Amino acid sequence: MREDYQLQLESINSDLVLMTELVGKAMAKATDSLLTDDLQLAEQVITGDELINSINSSIEERSLQMVALQAPVATDLRILMSAIRMGSSLERMGDLASHIAKQVRLRYPNPSVPEELRETFRQMGAAATKIVDETGRVIATRDADLAEKIKVYDDELDRLHRELFSVVLADDWTESVEAAIDVTLLSRFYERFGDHAVTVARRVVHIVTGEPYTK
Amino acid sequence: MREDYQLQLESINSDLVLMTELVGKAMAKATDSLLTDDLQLAEQVITGDELINSINSSIEERSLQMVALQAPVATDLRILMSAIRMGSSLERMGDLASHIAKQVRLRYPNPSVPEELRETFRQMGAAATKIVDETGRVIATRDADLAEKIKVYDDELDRLHRELFSVVLADDWTESVEAAIDVTLLSRFYERFGDHAVTVARRVVHIVTGEPYTK
Description:
2 copies of one chain form a homodimer.
Chain A: H1 2-36, H2 39-70, H3 74-107, H4 118-141, H5 144-149, H6 151-169, H7 177-209
Helix pairs in contact in A: 1-2, 1-3, 1-4, 2-3, 3-7, 4-6, 4-7, 6-7
């Protein structure tokens, strides 16, 4: 029974890692579609989000079944509770990648990002892909030190988000108000993506140390 | 034992209703602070969000403890799973009210909303407050018909969100790009607030009918 329980726990953990991989790929593709105005790639991201959602549902279901059937002790209960929460955050990260792809679809065949901001979004995409990769490693290894380190990428995303604001609000901004709003919302999706990754990493620390989870 | 279980379930449900009340008050206050540039009111919303977060944590904890201790059957498991999810959505709605208040604080003592859009935000605030009130009634009564009806307010929020876009993007928009971005983000908070309320109501329908929850 106990051995079986451990196997089930490991399978949930593997699925969380799988979610980070799928979300990472979705984010990389979404950014690519944004920078190359590639409708087909954007559609792939939007369609692919369903798989991410269904893995999340499965994690939720299995975690609760385990809680119900095994009456776990405090630590295991904390692990299962965290798994549900982490799945939920990762699903939301998938949604954000999908939001970016939907913006590409909305503006297609027009470009979604003005030339002068392409480099900023390229960097955002790189930091977002990196942070979710590292989040996967944190889940796989339960390495609390690594969890601390991923904040670097979140800081990078925050910095790029602020940088974009200053470009959009500068006197020499020659694009339309619509373009300003578009890129601000897009940039916010990347910034929120980073926040969710940090939340997931904190959940892992919570499991390892038992420290209360603070938002 | 069984009686005790029912009492605990009712207590969780009451706390969800309490959350809708607190979130509703937070949203009403946040909108007031936005329309009157009232920093003190904004601070109240921001501080008050902690209570909403702590009720959510308590719901999560108690639901999982019940799952662990009582090994509930399918229906009860669905109810407890839904309670966790609903608490999470309501907490997020509290965050959105808090985001609005933080925007007021950021721009204070300057007004956060240009004169010509105040009426739009007044209507958004009214629809948002209304939708969360009704969501509370849906949770309290488990009335699936009422759950359907609250979509009216979500549609109203979507309509106002689109209306705001057309104002901001019109040729006669005389305010700054910064103001355009500010009001777009604010409007998005109201729109997301409505989406989360609909999600909560759908969860209730899911409990009542057992129909699969679709996002």
